[in-house]
Structures are given as C-alpha cells and as structure tokens.
Specification:
Layout: E1 9-10, H1 19-24, E2 27-28, H2 34-43, E3 47-50, H3 54-70, E4 77-81, H4 86-92, E5 99-104, E6 110-115, E7 118-123, H5 129-140, E8 146-149, H6 169-175, H7 183-196, E9 203-207, H8 214-232, H9 239-243, E10 249-250, E11 254-257, H10 265-273, E12 276-277, E13 282-283, E14 289-290, E15 293-297, E16 301-305, E17 321-323, H11 325-339, H12 341-353, H13 359-362, H14 366-380, H15 392-403, H16 413-416, H17 424-437, H18 448-460, H19 478-482, H20 495-506, H21 509-512, H22 522-532, H23 538-543
Parallel strand pairs: 1-12, 2-6, 3-4, 3-8, 4-7, 5-15, 8-9, 9-10, 16-17
Antiparallel strand pairs: 5-6, 11-16, 13-14
C-alpha cells in the first residue's frame, strides 16, 4: 500500500516539502537551494537591511529572490529591526523568515509568491546578546558590501523639532559605541565595529527611505556620532576619518517608489481560501501591524547612485537603475515634486473632505480625476527636468492610468494625509519656485496648487463636505496649524476676517516652501478657501469648476 502524504500549507520551512501543493494554488516558489543559500550567507554575508517592515519584504527581499532564482547571486539578504523588535520575534521567527508577497495588478489579476530569500532576521537590540554579537560579526565580515535602510525619514533624526535630543541619543553620543540605545547609535556602533575589528573594510551605507537626499541624512547622523565619539576619545582613533573617506564608506543617494499598504483583510481572505494556515496578523505593543503576507502594487522603481567601494550585487539584472548623483536627484524631484507625490496629496486632502476611504475610488470621480491630471500634466510637467533614464510624461501616464486607479490597492486618503505639513514645501513649493525663476512660466497661471493649499486649510477644520466632523490624520504640527482656522466655520463670509486668521500661516515658508504673499498666490489661496467654506457641498461645487 502506497503511503499517502498529506501536507498542510503552513508558512514556514515546510513549504519546501510540499512545493506541488503550493504551485497548484498558483504560488511561485524559490527556485534555488534554500539550504545552500543559508549556508553561503552565514559564511560570507553580502547585504544587510535595517527596517523589517512591509516595503522591505515586498521590494528588497523580492529583488534578492529574483537574483537567486536567476543565478545572479548565491546569497540571501539579512534583515535587522532596530525599533520594534516584536516584528522579528512574533512574525519573522515563527515563520522561519518566510512570507507571501501578493502583487495586485490594476487589470484585476494578482501574483502570489512565496519569498524565501531572507537568510536571517535579527533584532538590533544590544540587550539581546545573541543577535547583537551576530550583527557585529556581520559587520566585521570583509564580504559585506552594503547595508540598506528603510527606517523612515524620522529614523535619521537625532533631535526633535525643538532641538532636544531624542531618547538615547545624548547618552549614546557621550558613552560611545559599547552599548548604544538609539537607532542610529546602534548603526554607528556596528560601523565602528567594522572599522576597529574588521580591518576598516569598505562598505556602502545605502538609505532607501522615501525622502530627499536620503544618503546625506544617513551620513549626517552617523558622522555626528563618529565626530562626538572621537572627540571624547571613546572610540578607536581615526573612526571619523573612516566615515568621511568615500573610498571606504559611501552614502549613496537613492529614489525608491513602490506603494506597499498595510496587509489587507481582503487579501488575507483569498490566501485563507487557498488553504494557507498561520495567517494571523500581529499588532505589536508599539502598534505595528504585521502579517505573514504583504500586498503591493506591481509598479516599482529603485534608482541608486553607483558608489559601492566594496562592490555590490548585480541588482541591475532585476530592474534597479544605477546612475550618478545628479540623475538620482532629477528622478527624485520628478517623483516627489511633480509626477506622483503631489497627486497623492491632492487626492488625500479632498478624499478626506469628500468621504472617500480608498484612493482608487477617487479616480472614478470625474472632478478629482480631472484635478490630478491638471496638476500633473498642466502645472507640474512644464518644470520637470528630464532625468533621461525615465520619461516624466510616461511616469505620470503610469501614475494616472495604472497606479492610482488600481482597485486592488487598499490605500487610503487618511493614511496619505498623515504629516501633510511636512510635505507641502517639497510637493508644491518647489514647483512654485520653478515658476518664479524659469523664463516663460507665470506663477500667476497656477490654479490647482493654490486650490490644494486652500483644501489643506479646509481639511484642518476637520469638517467634511457634508458638515460632519472627522478625525484628522497624525501630523507633528497639527496643534500649531489648526489654531489658524479656529473660529472659521461653514458659511463664513467675512473674507477680511478669514485673511486675518490664516494670512500669517500663508507666510510660513517652512511649511509651503515659499511665502505665499511674496509669490502673489496668497490672494488665490484665500479666494479658494472662501469658496470651499461657503457651506455644505461647497467642496464638491468648487472642484467641479476646474475643467
């Protein structure tokens, strides 16, 4: 009698014992020998990544899987988490670092992939002796070529907006690299380990966070530690020179672009229907929502300044662009200032006011669709400097016609509305500056950008277009900026009083990127704001006029 083996579809190493069951349900699987990959990575690590969140699992880890599948590399990626250790302890380790990537396509189909390229998952926690010693060992390895980061823009800060040192930073700056507590203090300590005990081997420190000139942010933070430690004599002499020697340590600029929302319950239902077990999400004590799967859009871009003093993986074979710093800057500005991020902010603000809960649904709204097209093609495109490696018009075409309307992308205006006060200067202020400087362009011709600024003021009132109150998304300046609209309600008609209230805010160049009075746009913003507060339904009526 033949033995009948019945396998359960669990997200752990048992995946590799029942590949046919997974393939029968439409899942692609690692095409390499996982045990060989683990052994080679342990012996000679090449790439470590800091930040174990969704973007890492959907983008970086999958790039490595594609390289492993094609034979472009024989080593996996190591991930370290320096903020929320429970992500590693409660999600990565119970699943043997294996997860599912669900790619949601605008045409309605989806790709399901079991990702097995993560060789190790560690907590960057000095109290965890095992993990911390392993991290030091990795940084001592001559084979290590690069450390990448997705720790959010705030992760590189050493001080708060009021100048106070963030938790652990002051202590770390004084105490040295022995037992750091702050995130960048830990990274600096590991780099010091490479210098002091690893023979000062070269390495690239590569921020892939979605912020402007991200390599400089990482360099400035690490350099601050190196200089302070050397000045105090608490590190090996010459560490600061090592950090500042581009032939030893590089800090390339990058531009990353891939929408990776929180794992969606509808996707979870599809995976459950396939028979996958152990799909329960975890909400950590730090309120991080993680699941054994990630869902992401199909489109993705990663452009990197090609400065790798110890070599690098052949990422160009899986779609990564390598170029010079000037080109990275152009691509980043193309995306952040004109072709994507401004369109998202526009939809976020008006989506909240009009009661939308999915960005994709907003693109079915003729008024909003027309508004973002005007913003991108008419007002943004004329000031884009073509980076050469990507077409600005083609990029906007993809954003407007494929990416934002993707009905399977569970992204919300409420999420994108977070931290709007920190985004306006880059997403719109740079375009205004270009209009004021470039011959043949008239800043007075701008219509949608002033409307968006007015929309933000209207949003700060926390009252939707039907007159109902809603909760504002988190923003570090919320209590500061909301005071400017206190006392202004729907139906307010005194334009003089309104200007007296909001005028000082419109002068704040640190928020808008420019003094809107100096550019001549303040009057337009106030006029738009008056239209938006005329009464219930005024938001809909106003945006409907932009044809």
């Amino acid at each position: 009698m033949n033995d009948i083996r019945i396998y359960s579809m669990r997200l752990d190493k048992s995946v590799f014992e029942c590949k046919q069951e997974w393939k029968a349900k439409g899942y692609s699987l690692p095409e390499f020998d996982v045990n060989e990959m683990l052994a080679r990575t342990a012996a000679a690590p090449c790439w470590i990544h800091f930040g174990a969140g969704n973007i890492f699992r959907a983008f970086h880890a999958n790039l490595v899987q594609e390289m492993l599948n094609s034979g472009a590399t024989d080593r996996g990626i190591i991930v370290a988490e320096g903020y929320d250790y429970e992500i590693i302890e409660k999600m990565y380790r119970p699943h043997d670092n294996i997860g599912v990537l669900v790619t949601l396509k605008a045409a309605g189909s989806m790709d399901k992939c079991v990702v097995g390229s993560i060789a190790e998952a560690l907590t960057a926690d000095t109290a965890n002796t095992h993990d911390w010693e392993r991290l030091k060992e990795i940084f001592r390895s001559a084979s290590l070529q690069m450390a990448t980061f997705t720790i959010t823009e705030k992760g590189y800060l050493l001080r708060s907006a009021d100048g106070r040192a963030l938790p652990g930073v002051e202590e770390d700056l004084t105490a040295g690299p022995a037992c750091p507590k702050s995130y960048i203090g830990k990274v600096a300590a590991l780099l010091h380990e490479r210098y002091a005990e690893g023979g000062a081997a070269p390495v690239a420190m590569v921020s892939t966070d979605n912020c402007s000139h991200n390599g400089d942010k990482l360099y400035n933070a690490i350099n601050a530690f190196a200089k302070a430690w050397e000045k105090s004599g608490v590190c090996k002499a010459g560490f600061a020179a090592y950090v500042n020697d581009a032939g030893k340590v590089s800090f390339p600029w990058t531009m990353i672009d891939k929408i990776t929302p929180r794992p969606d319950s509808n996707v979870e239902k599809i995976l459950l229907a396939d028979g996958i077990e152990q799909l329960e999400p975890v909400i950590t004590s730090k309120k991080t929502y993680v699941a054994p799967f990630v869902n992401a859009e199909e489109c993705q871009y990663l452009v990197i300044e090609d400065r790798f003093p110890n070599g690098r993986p052949a990422l160009e074979k899986v779609g990564v662009y390598f170029t010079d710093r000037a080109t990275v800057d152009k691509v980043e500005k193309m995306k952040v200032c004109t072709c994507l991020n401004p369109l998202h902010t526009c939809l976020a603000l008006f989506g909240c006011l009009l009661g939308y809960h999915l960005i994709a649904d907003e693109m079915k709204d003729a008024d909003l669709h027309r508004l973002v097209e005007t913003l991108g093609y008419t007002e943004g495109l004329p000031v884009v400097v073509n980076p050469g490696i990507l077409s600005p018009r083609g990029f906007i075409d993809e954003v407007v016609n494929i990416r934002i309307p993707n009905p399977f992308m569970p992204d919300t205006p409420q999420r994108i509305a977070c931290d709007t006060s920190q985004k306006l200067s880059i997403r719109f202020g740079e375009t205004i500056k270009a209009y004021t400087k470039r011959e043949g362009l008239d800043v007075g011709s701008l219509k949608v950008i002033p409307l968006i600024f007015a929309g933000w003021l209207r949003y700060l009132m926390a009252v939707d277009d039907g007159g109902s109150r809603f909760e504002l998304s988190p923003d570090p300046l919320l209590s500061d900026v909301c005071r400017y609209v206190e006392g202004i309600g729907l139906g307010t008609t005194d334009a003089g009083a309104v200007e007296k209230a909001v005028g000082p805010l419109l002068r704040r160049a640190e928020i808008f990127g420019v003094d809107l009075y100096e550019t001549g746009l303040a009057g337009k913003v106030i006029a738009c704001f008056m239209a938006l507060i005329a009464g219930k339904g005024a938001v809909r009526q106003t945006i409907g006029l932009y044809k």
